[in-house]
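User: I want to check something. If I give you two sequences, will you return the structure for each one separately, not as a complex?

Assistant: Yes, each is folded on its own. Here is the first sequence with its structure:
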Amino acid sequence: MHVLVLGGTAEARRLAGLLVAELPGGAKVTSSLAGRVAGPRLPPGEVRIGGFGGADGLAAWLRTHQVDALIDATHPFAGTISFNAATAAAAAHVPLLALRRPGWVPGEGDDWHPVGSLDEAARALPARGQRVFLTTGRMGLAAFAGLDELWFLMRSVDAPEPPYPARMEVLLDRGPFALEGERELIRRHRIDVLVTKDSGGAATAPKLAAAREARIPVIVVRRPPVPGSVAVAATPALALAWLRGHVGCGP
């Protein structure tokens, strides 16, 4: 049996570890990474890096490498690959599961302002604050490049490339992040507004708690649409259970 995991997330790494440990001997687990992050954390099993060439290329890869199950465990904002996975799996007649971490939910004391895109977030910013903690990653910074009157603390794994805001300090760091550290960043940099994508998960959630404690607004970019006909699991353990039920890979 051969399982292909479209990865790049912490959940994908945990799933690959589960599959390598739990699947019967002779089973093959391949994780595919997009290659957008330098020095990625590699999961157990085999790893390939790079794109497939769209849905047709992925379907051809599934056939050529005799893949028995495809699991889309990509980031919630990697929307294109999820649609490509659905199209490719249908064309190659391969069972498909989406491993999607639940989105964040505002709680008491939160001051959240949902928007549909980075461009909408940029338009909403001047009315919310002047010192911005920007945690949307290094891709898409062009949306904020014209906001010269605002100051940005931008956090990402890798250094960004222009265009980006003129008044910006870059913090290179990789989660998970602790609440105390997020509190200190907000205090030290006098942050008065947070911008984030609704990535979900625990690794980067402490910034939301820190923003709540500091009583600062949070502009939250909603997730892009995903294929509606694909089975979904919220955790790696549930994904493993789905695989056992659909492919028949032991107890």
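And separately, the second sequence with its own structure:
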Amino acid sequence: MTAAADPPEDLAPIQARTLFVMRDGRLTAINDVGRPAPPRCFLSYTATAVTAWTSTAVPADLTDELHRWAADQPPAPLTEVVSPPAEALRLLARHAPVTESFVGPAYAVPDSADTPAPPGLTLRECGPSESALFRETFPDVAGTLAERQPTVAAFDGHRAVAVCCAARDGGEAYEAGTETLPSHRGRGLASALVTRWARLVRARGARPLYSTEWDNHSSLSVAKRLAMELYAVNVSLY
């Protein structure tokens, strides 16, 4: 079964449900191993609207104000959303100062032909029982491989040198997470892995999503190389 295409703006709430654990529309945790604390406010800018989600740490009256502010925002070109909005920072500061923020694009991964691995390297899917393959080079993946399915890796001989896995699993969508050893960067491995990974996600009847930050130029180049569709810009405020 393959997932039907959604209008770009409809992917924003799907991504939010993929990235976070929610209760009654409030963020309770990041949807990751160990359930880390979520941002106090997560904003999703699309071509037609701005949507705000707040954590359960934010008082209800302030949450209502943030929702009203977001609903009143006019659409803006997504490529111009490059920094946290001043008004959202001001509102949150009434609760506590914003100590950290992340801003970056969110993409839908297209269905495209497989990119061959560079000469001398092989790509293959790795199941939950194969964590030993990652202990040397990607110990964090090794310790959570069962929770990172599907996972695709590039091997130089028997050594894992790059990996693309499910950084977040929301059931209806999966968020890609990629990592490449410094010695093997610049060879197109991430693009090849993301393409293969996205096919595995679609085979599960889910949507493959990919997001990054504006200053992560290597991740942006992967999105450009695969002609990914920009559907939103995310702003996380801690």
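Because they were folded independently, the notes below concern the second chain alone. DSSP finds six helices and eleven strands in the chain. The first strand starts at residue 20 and ends at 23.
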